[in-house]
Amino acid sequence: MRFDTSLLAIDWGTTNRRIYRIEQGAVTQTERDDRGVTAMAQTGYAEEIAAIRARFGDLPVLMAGMVGSTIGWQVAPYVPAPAGLDEIAQGLAWIDARTAIVPGVSLVDGRRADVMRGEEVQLLGACAAGMAPGDALLAQPGTHCKWVEMRGGRIADFVTAMTGELFAMLRKQSILAPQLGAPVADGPAFREGVEDGKRADLAASLFGVRAAKLMGVRDDADAAAYVSGLLIGADVAARLAQSDHAEVQLLADPVLGSLYAIAIEANGRAARLVDSHAAFLAGIVQLGKLIA
Amino acid sequence: MRFDTSLLAIDWGTTNRRIYRIEQGAVTQTERDDRGVTAMAQTGYAEEIAAIRARFGDLPVLMAGMVGSTIGWQVAPYVPAPAGLDEIAQGLAWIDARTAIVPGVSLVDGRRADVMRGEEVQLLGACAAGMAPGDALLAQPGTHCKWVEMRGGRIADFVTAMTGELFAMLRKQSILAPQLGAPVADGPAFREGVEDGKRADLAASLFGVRAAKLMGVRDDADAAAYVSGLLIGADVAARLAQSDHAEVQLLADPVLGSLYAIAIEANGRAARLVDSHAAFLAGIVQLGKLIA
Known about the structure:
Shape of chain A: globular
Largest sheet of chain A: 6 strands, mixed
Structural class of chain A: alpha/beta
Largest interface: A-B, 44 and 44 residues
Strand order of the largest sheet of chain A: 3-2-1-4-7-6
Number of strands of chain A: 14
Oligomer: homodimer
Radius of gyration of chain A: 20 Å
Helix content of chain A: 25-40%
Number of helices of chain A: 9
Order of helices and strands of chain A: EEEHEEHEEEEHEEEHHHHEHEH
Strand content of chain A: 25-35%
């Protein structure tokens, strides 16, 4: 038994987990559940892996994500950027000869620091499989949106923006919370937010949402879409000001991905959606081959 | 009995309240408590005012702040900017012939709206009493920081930034919360935050606080000061980019005022602290004279 194009891959995040059985490079079984690392006991992982092998087959196991963090099973120390599949393979944290955890990637540039853990597999997989160019700007929208400069198929530089987390906080506990209950969708309010986001003046634009309600300028039904547009627009504008790529490769679910695509186009660039699950699988299979 | 330079003034906010007895323009008794409008029953105000007159003297009463909002006693509709003491006096909401609520000020400039309620008394008082120039940029730092362009002693234009609220939210519920427990004080970390705030890229700078910890770039003891500097610095930089006043007049308590002063100076302008309590009293006394 050795690593190869047949293995079990686990995308093991904070709150969710997805298990894939991959045989000859193709997924033959998959399962998604809520047994993320916060639902696990630190001492329960070996037993859990045995149970997974019993269900999915007695194959080598590659895990990625928060399972390799301080709140996971075993710390897989960050590999410094620039990093490609080779450096990631060399940085694997081995539990035993057929069970390993993929390391995250870190960046320190003067006083600026950044980290990723889990996203690296998608990024490197997308480039390795030709789903995205090897020299490109990739974005992974979400709670903590990653913007990654790939060069020669390697992670060269990146920035994380806590765009999704700010939106969730505003919706949950700010003075604006009672106005932000409506679902977010594209439309005039979202696009007005994207335009205002270019001004990069969040603290003032956000208070304007309350004043717009009090003065009858904007309906509350539109407030959530406007604020989402504002935050995504500010994120996109800040990143594109630092990049001259004509196109952004979006690793995202279709809903959030299409909102980012609208904001990217409103800032004069093109956006292309890349299947993030397929990219993850491509990355894990490449890693399996490298350590075969 | 008529309004004059002798009256009871109540600065009646959301959570706190301050009562002043003013005789011949001077404070002869004052009291501060936590009976803000959220602690009051909507039907209890008349009785409360009777009790205040019993304690402080049977004088005319002028109230300012959230007592005139939809969550207060009676709505005192916003007076549109530009607005001076005359317009505010004309906009008073009268409960009876010797009891009135000061209106807030609103602004609608195309799709941009803003409001203030309570701050107008300080602003107009500071200029009327010569504590600040009549043509000046005034700032009132706090949960919702007001930046006000005064022209000829009148409120000409203003912007509100929810700078203090964003800081409180981040400290209470964000992924950064465990790092932000230390008190905020001036020092290298605060000033580094002010510099980074000039980049106006909050969502990314904030995630950098977490990464800086993980990569050992910044100690957690400094994280709260850095984030405060970041938010105040972004607020100050955005506002000064829209203004060419060489000096900002700060209506603030000394602690928060001095942090804003540092950020203003780091952006190449001068800052001057103005006593906000004295400004409130000057404004209320001027209003009392106008309706005498």
